[in-house]
Amino acid sequence: MDKITLKLNPEFGCELVLAIPYVYWLHQQDKLEGVITSVGMKPFYYFCDNVDEKFTSRTIDNTVSGLNQLPNKWMHHNSTILNKEYGKLTDEEKSFVHGNLDYTQWTPPPYVEVYGKDIFNFNKRYVVVSNRYNLEHGNQPVGYFDIPFLYKIFNHLIENDYIVIYKRPKNVEFPTDNNELQNMVIRADVEDIGEITDFDLVGYYDNVILLDDLVKENKNMTYNEVQLHLFSNASGFISMAGGSGIFCSYFGKPNITYVTTSGELREGYFDENSYYRKLSNAPIYAFIDNENDITARGHRDYSELYKKVKEVFK
After folding, report:
1. How would residue 139 be classed by pLDDT, with cut points 50, 70 and 90?
2. Which own/partner contact pairs does 52-60 have at CB distance under 8 Å and 24+ positions apart?
């Protein structure tokens, strides 16, 4: 059988879920020739000697992103595991297939084994808070951690002797998809201070470190190499669902994730057969706050998520 070269530039989350575990499976079967992927992704394919970082942008159009070459072409459900069309499934069957894939040709790479050497030497436990602030389906952001909530979780983690690593991309660090084209800023008015951004908030703490600063300090590594080393040694993650939350699920540590939109809202999505859990058998705590409910009430509700933060990170 001829070996396979895959050409891939989908959304980051799709590549993490649908592409990389298949590519690694091909590698294990000695069927992999090479990968053509987006700029910066080579560290994720460390096991492949033939990686061409060709693409400078990603696409949300799955018909041209390379996903149609893969056994799993859609990550939000896979009705083929029941040999039925999705529209013909019962509600119970839909709940079963949500977030569930065909895992017969699907093996996530062991990133913790490969990148687990602690090169940062913080000498203290640390938690990664992975935030985002992007357009959502062409609309203004709804799902994100705002400054008052960041203030609460930063304080809780520091009071419990954790360092916080704050990740909030400016969308210049990597090839973007259609929802990441603008560099947007989270802002809030703070009493006696005035308007600050989430990046400004980090500067008020000695034990909160901006991921981008670590990247600047470690010029011998790429952005994704820093992330892979850093995340491999984290005590856990507080994340936004989507690509960043999926990434945080690769490292076998608790991932408390905030879900506001997309297919993750579907019943059963985070059950035991979900790819979120199977990426590394990490404990996944998903808290759903539907974007429609947020719009109706006029604010995000982090209350249950915050209870879990206090329970897990103490």
Report:
1. confident
2. 55/9, 55/175, 56/175, 57/9, 57/175, 57/176, 57/177, 58/9, 58/10, 58/11, 58/12, 58/175, 58/176, 58/177, 59/9, 59/10, 59/11, 59/177, 59/178, 60/10, 60/11, 60/177, 60/178, 60/179
